[in-house]
Specification:
Helices cover about 75% and strands about 5% of the residues. The chain is mostly helical. A hairpin with a 2-residue loop joins β1 and β2. The longest helix is centred in the middle third of the chain and has 34 residues. It is flat.
């Protein structure tokens, strides 16, 4: 039983060193990219939520026959959508910069990025 507990403790320490922690009967990730995601993507996530809410309200207003309100809500949704795009782009750049600030010119860390964002940074690097 003692060697089993030692093995469990060793495994847990290994997982914790990789950013995984066991809390409340579940594993939680607390890695650098996870923290950067929360730091830089929170505002973008709020905008996409507002965009979706406005589009849904616009649809309901249209179905009720209130085309003026539907148009206003649709326009608001489009503004939130543009804000989301801008904030998402900024977040991707900030995450990339943070993940790579100590890397040499031949090393890229793309963790925490969406595929389309990662492709932009790869293309930029190759074209240098």
């Amino acid at each position: 039983a003692d060697s089993r507990q030692q093995a469990i403790t060793a495994l847990q320490k290994t997982l914790e060193s990789a950013g995984w922690f066991y809390k409340n009967n579940q594993w939680e990730e607390h890695t650098k990219q996870d923290e950067l995601w929360k730091k830089f993507r929170t505002e973008a996530e709020k905008e996409v939520k507002l965009r979706n809410e406005c589009f849904e309200a616009s649809k309901k207003a249209f179905e009720k026959g209130d085309k003026q309100l539907a148009k206003e809500l649709s326009d608001k949704a489009k503004v939130h959508g543009k804000n989301w795009e801008k904030l998402t782009e900024e977040a991707g750049r900030n995450i990339y910069n943070e993940m790579n600030k100590e890397n040499d010119e031949w090393t890229m860390d793309l963790h925490g990025l969406f595929v389309n964002e990662a492709m932009v940074f790869v293309k930029e690097k190759v074209e240098k």
